[in-house]
Amino acid sequence: MLKVGVFGVGHLGKYHLNNWKEIKDVKLIGFFDPNNDAAKEVTNQYGIKRYMDEEKLIDACDIIDVVVPTDKHFEICMAAIRKGKHVFVEKPFTNTIQEAKSLVNMVKEANIKLQVGHVERFNPAFQAIKNLKLNPMFIEVHRLAQFNPRGTEVSVILDLMIHDIDIILSLVKSGVKNIYASGIAVMTDTPDIANVRIEFNNGCVANLTSSRISMKKMRKIRLFQKDGYYGIDFLEKKTEIITLKQPDDRHSFSFDIDTPNGTKTIAVSNPEIEPANAILLELQSFVDAINNNSPTLVSEIDGLLALEVAHQILSKINNNNIAIS
User: Fold this and answer.
1) All domains of the chain, ordered by start, with CATH?
2) Three-state SS string across 152-188, please?
3) What is the DSSP annotation of 199-258?
4) Of the candidates 92, 133, 127, which has an alpha carbon nearest to the alpha carbon of residue 305?
5) Is 85:62 a contact under the CB 8 Å cutoff?
6) What share of the chain is helix, strand, coil (3-state, %, to 5)?
């Protein structure tokens, strides 16, 4: 029985509490949160112990779940890893690249499991295509959200766009060649809307737009490659696949088009999406990695790589804004 302690029981932390209670062979033993109102609510609702001392909670657990503001990630993760505890930490991995690199080294030395909460990897719309042969050469992303003061301690890059950065890096097995970025602060002191172009060494290009001041919500990725198109709607949990029809493909709507190279048969399919709780899936996968001594599905290396690209984007935006001013 793995014992779990949660750091941070705000909006997202409560989702984690609910899902930990659904996982077999896991015991939720307590939480730490300096907010007395939130702590009282959780104690009453969940009947779990509030720890007033961070070290004592870490000592009492096998797993530490870090759901606090980003600038607190490093110190809690560091304390847990030093005590040989497994760590699940929400995205972004840490506040700085140096902090992330330090934790990567500590994880290796401590021989523990760490997983970063890039939850879109577990979105059922993405799960529907993750095992297909994907080699995208052009990617278009839109992630738009209505303004919410929660999470604005970091820029829209680290708040929203980093989800898509992680997804793209998991699909494009190539290094980043160039980044072009622009963004402006509207409601906060950091960029609230940004447009980014990432060019990879293998020729793939990704265009990303993220906004937290939109009138509507949107979370879509479109992947284009030589033999097809893949559209993923993370919000509506829908996936669309358009490819050249294969002889054994009998489950797609198809039609013929004339091309300079002759008639081609196009197949259009919408894979059946199984309803799923992405947070539950990511926490369960973390527990499985511990129990099976297997790699975590979103490792500390993945968290570092996404953070490095995010900070390169922020640097480009800052440089552009300084040049304009």
Assistant:
1) 2-120+279-297 (3.40.50.720), 122-274+309-324 (3.30.360.10)
2) CCCCHHHHHHHHHHHHHHHHCCCCEEEEEEEEECCCC
3) EETTS-EEEEEEESS-SS-EEEEEEEETTEEEEEETTTTEEEEEEEPPTT--SSEEEEEE
4) 92
5) yes
6) 35, 30, 35
Structure tokens at 110: 């401590």
Residues 6+ apart with CB under 8 A from 68: 7, 8, 76
Check: CB of residue 279 under 8 Å from CB of residue 20.
no
Do residues 208 and 200 lie in contact, with contact meaning Cβ atoms separated by under 8 Å?
no
Region of 311 on the Ramachandran plot (φ > 0 left; ψ -120 to 50 alpha; else beta):
alpha
Q: What's the burial of 94, exposed, middle or buried (CB within 10 Å: 0-12/13-18/19+)? A: buried
Strand pairing category for 193-200 and 205-211: antiparallel
pLDDT in tens, 200-247: 999 999 999 999 999 999 999 999 998 899 999 999 999 999 887 665
100 within 8 A of 77, measured Cβ to Cβ: no
pLDDT tens profile 50-88: 999 999 999 999 999 999 999 999 999 999 999 999 999
CA distance 296 to 286: 6
Assess whether the previous peptide bond of 295 is cis (omega < 30° from 0).
Answer: no
- Residue (of 111, 189, 190) closest to 158 by Cα position: 190
Q: Both tokens of residue 21?
A: 């209670």
